[in-house]
Amino acid sequence: MKSRLRNTLLPRLPYLGLAGFVLLLDQISKSLIQKSFNLGQSVSVVEGFFELIYVRNTGVAFGVFSSVASPAKSALLSTFAAVAVVVVVVYSVRSSAGHHFLQAALALILGGALGNLYDRIAHGYVIDFLNFHFGSYDWPTFNVADTAITLGVMFLAAEIIRDEIRDRA
What we know:
alpha+beta; 61% helix
């Protein structure tokens, strides 16, 4: 049993470290925003392109479902996030630790999911603060965790496509 656990865990330590780094960076950045900004306060970083703004997201990624008013919403979204964390961990353990790109993608998703899950459990909302503008288009405000999840999903998709191409050859 110990040998099996060691063979499963040890090769994944770098990926657990990456997930932990994402979680730490996410929580530190959110804490700095909470301490430095009032709710709704913004500071332009690149005029007309990028600003820091403190918002509370009661929905999911990019504010989807924020307008839904239900006392069960936070618990339901927390449950979905916890299930996603379990799915990512199981997929990681069932996949070879030697698939470095896949494991890194899963670690990014895991770290981001844990960061937003922590917010939802601790506060009932997720702290967002990164906001980009492209001309008249205003991208939904997001955070470090959202960025890690998005990158992880993109890397995961690239890995799946690469495997499909390799299997067809």
